[in-house]
Amino acid sequence: MVDINRPWVVDTPELSGRFPIYTRGNTGEVAGRVSTPLSWSSIGGWPAEIQWRKALVEFGAFDEDEFRPDEMDITALIHGYIYMNLSIARVFGVRMPGASAELMDRAYLGESAGVKPYVAEPGDDAPQYTERIMATVQRVLGARSRPDLEEDARRAAELRAARPDFAAMSDRELLAHHHKIMTGHYGGVLRKHLLMVYESTLVTGMLQEVIAELSDPTLEVRLMGGWGGVASAAPTIGLWRLSRTVRGSGTLTAEFEAGDMAGLDGRLRALSDPDARAFVADFDAFLFEYGSRSTDEWEALPATWETHPHIALGLVDRMRLQSDERSPESLAPRVREEREELTRRLRERLADRPELLGKLDTALQAMAVWMPARELSKTTTIRVLQEARLPFRELGRRHVERGLLESIDDIGLLDIDELGTLIDDPEAVLPLIPERKKWKAELEALEPPFVVDGAVPPVTQWAKRSAPAASPGRSGDVLTGLGACPGAATGRARVIHDPADAIGLEPGEILVAPVTDPGWTPLFASALGVVVNVGSPLSHAAIVSRELGIPAVLAVEQATKRIADGTLITVDGTAGTVTIH
Length: 581
What we know:
Elements: E1 21-23, H1 27-30, H2 37-44, H3 46-59, E2 75-78, E3 81-85, H4 86-95, H5 101-109, H6 130-142, H7 147-161, H8 171-214, H9 219-223, H10 234-247, H11 250-257, H12 261-270, H13 274-290, H14 309-319, H15 328-349, H16 354-401, H17 416-424, H18 432-444, E4 446-447, E5 451-453, E6 463-464, E7 478-480, E8 482-485, E9 488-495, E10 510-513, E11 529-532, H19 540-548, E12 552-554, H20 559-562, E13 568-572, E14 577-580
Parallel strand pairs: 9-10, 10-11, 11-12
Antiparallel strand pairs: 1-3, 1-5, 2-3, 4-6, 7-14, 8-12, 9-13, 13-14
GO molecular function: transferase activity, transferring phosphorus-containing groups
Protein name: Phosphoenolpyruvate-utilizing protein
Pfam family, one: PEP-utilizers
């Protein structure tokens, strides 16, 4: 019997007293499961906290000494689940000219209730930060390009090209390679990405300020898409092109239609057919470029497309069923053209309001820079991270081969220090793994509280994930969420909980998914529309759906439970609604 009442192996020992409110808002989008000891100790705990603090200080909103020197403040791990500090976000909003604590609540919590209103604490409203923040504002709004990000991307590509032969390295050399990447490459790109998360909110904040004057809430989603050059949309286009190769080849089509995605990669590589050889060459080039993408992107041992190619081939399989006119490259211009026409009309409307017109032009000019930049930054960060975590997978493979572990993933149940012990004295740490595996499974059967205010509710009081959802939707019901990409689509709902299990998604259907990780977004191209449980205007799913021109509504609470599989629904990405027929 596992005692799950105690803190998880790498839980945060003590939550902040100065900043006591934490939320799963935002983190629930990209970290839905319990964080493994290896992930938190090597990637997500102190390694991320250090860079996050630097980003906030560089932005100008905090000083380093406002945070505890020996405890994490910005994020916390509570019974294995990652939480963001809402109190710090509120102070950020108070110090940011034109923002507020309430605005940050809406960004992190959406329409969710259950958190007490903001109450000012001494030091929250600190005028000395205004000058620093305004310098950042001027820098962000004045930027016309981000060549530094292109340089970071180039270096990440070089790092991938120079990957050593892990199979030829000793166990200790593998661990040393991980540390080399984390200390020499990863920290800098992560800090820049975290800083960009805050900087991009300045751009959307200015746009929202203009929209508030125009009394049309649909303007935001209609003005935010179609900028082109978004790095996170590129994998979908690459997969689509692979799907066209399959669609045009009888040999490849037969292999895909045979099913067994897990064995498809091996079957294709065994064929001497020219079509198969050409496809494998193109697929290998795709994996070289985009193989780091996955769901659970911040984990130490995620199922990436590179390590689990059957997932990427499954995405190709769904895309091959689509007709050529569903090409992402042909759908995307619709969003751009609609935005450009809307912008033209707004400029005419504001011709006699030069101040507001100037703000609109400034916001849109900044949007053209920062939307692609933000996604390029994230793509680069994950590509570098892949080079740091692949040594873990090789270590796991070896210990499975030696008969010490049941699966490669078991190595994630040890923290980074215990991993070193595993190399030198396996018997000292191997007994820890079976209990932790059961412990993790029991925690993942629970729904963590959305907000924690000071005291953590006993884990025995947490709801079961299998508990009944809110009342299922009935014909005529309209579910509300956040419009992510303008446009409307009507089709049968296909509820999918894992992109690896998307074999049932058929042309003309609406994808209903739980989260917004990059591992999901290529499925968007196989769907007529998209509905997601969580999300925000700057979430990965929102940005990619706009670039692909797929009508999407995010932050539809418990959509995967409220919308029954096969239900006829209409997705209105402009209004942010889902109508059940």
